[in-house]
Amino acid sequence: MKKDKRTIGHLFMIGSLIFFYLPIVFMMVFSFNESKSLTHFTGFSMRWYVSMLKNHSMMESLYTTIIIAIVATIVSTVIGTITAIGMSSSKKAIRQFIQQVNDFPLMNPDIVTAIGLMLLFITIQVERGFMTLLLAHISFCIPYVMLSIMPKLRSLDPNLADAAMDLGATPFQALWKVIVPEIMPGIISGALIAFTMSFDDFIISYFATGKGVKNLSIMVYTMSKRVNPSINAISTIVVVLITIVLILSNLLPMVREKSGLARKMSRGWKIGLSFAVIGALVISYFGLKGGIGSKPYAGQTLHVYNWGEYTGENSVNDFEQMTGAKVVMDNFDSNEQMYIKIANGESYDILVPSDYMIERLIREDKLMKLDKERIQPALDLIDPSVLDLPFDPGNTYSVPYFWGSVGIVYDKTVVDEEDLKEGYNIFLNPKYKGQIYLYDSERDSFMMALKALGYSMNTENEQELQEAYQWLCQCVETMSPEIVTDEIIDNMAQGRKALGLIYSGDATYVMAENENMGFYLPEEGTNLWSDGMVIPKNAKNVDLAYEFINFMTDYDAAMDNSSYVGYTSPNVDVMNELYGQGGEYEGINAYIPREGYEKDEVFEFNDVTRKSIANLWSKVKILASNAK
Question: What kind of fold does domain 55-287 have according to CATH?
Fold first, then answer.
């Protein structure tokens, strides 16, 4: 019986280890994958490590994470230790009060703490950035330090300090040479927990930072919106470093005991080594900014607000090398998220919103009119089909960045091409029940439903919107769709479902990865969209913004952007080369948007309709969740 119990225990332990460590092994293996796929290993390559090292933002986020974690750990450990010792000698009422105050952040949800800190910084008008991020980390690390130290203090003899002073020690000596050594295990445990919490934190960091300062968690979050195996590479580096530290921390004490090395290491040498490590990290961090030199915009900073993973591997670095400026790129998940920041007065030099949001910003007088002479070199390179569109006649405020359409990606081995003639109504065909993806976008989902019903996607007719809502309800009730965002990219590349609604640029990647995938634009029409670069009225570096617009539209940067991201470049030469014979996207029809088709439309901004559609889409998602 005992043997059986031990066997079950061993099996459970092995299963637990596999459960926890297999994903890490999986991540490390795929960091060496030749392709972008996060699920299909196509061959060994170091390309994602090279890409990681070239990525200025990623490496800076790693250094920021390490520096913040080290400084926050040191400060919170000192404050937490002093507070805990003082609290242990205080009256019971004071001790209980401080204990409750200390416990509250531990029990409080991180999102509440994060929003509270953000509102505090906004209220006292402190600009969010590195210092606010550091202060936030110190504040949430202190309770963990105190929680680790208090049990050790309670286990001490309360007369220990008095005995030391009776023997001639000063109060400080009693504290430093008697109390602190006795509680050192608790201090070390608290420091390790503080470092781990700081290094790992995302939610509080996300709300407490600004000005482009990101830690690794925020960087990984923004990069995970699209397929980017560089995430695996930098995560593998972190895992390897932590493993090395853990091995050394366990082996060095044994080595020192055997060799007598511990006696040779003076306290001053240890402190000097610690400061040397921190100094090296700080120097390396600021060294990333590069030398000032004599370049035209040396020492200046350009603040860009763009979609996550929407630039090429080398574009930003090349621009920094050319101008001597630093590019700080913040990322947003939706036009609405971007709008909130702009409406609240946050300053950026360049925005990259979508067509309908550009129209809204123009109406609300938040954009600067562009100097045509300064952007004419860029406009001369752009396909006329993406110029002079209804949301910005004459390109008075915007220069195209990417453009494309929304269509159906499908598995040729599963979907009958005759069924595609149903257009968007194929999403109601019971043959494909449980085999479809819907895209989690109210605009595009309602576009699909409205077009399927023969209506304009810009309709203001409430009855037509209700019919579209009923169409979507029928879809989620009868077809068991999976509502996703960018997960559709890798999932369809692996052929996990039969078909899905997708952006043309994402379909381009899917088709490049899997020859069995196709892309179809329904005859009912679709959304012909474009994202453009604009300069807000409160931009602080307008000259550098114009340089960025022209640079990103020019051949080299446009090629880097389009070949890496997969979306259609507005640059005619780049578009033709990538799609032409021998091009990276040769024969992939998703890469070239359909031009001149009368039923294709561009989204128009209508605030009343937008709110109605957003409300109805929320109901559709609730219905889909309940249907599961």
Answer: MetI-like fold (1.10.3720)
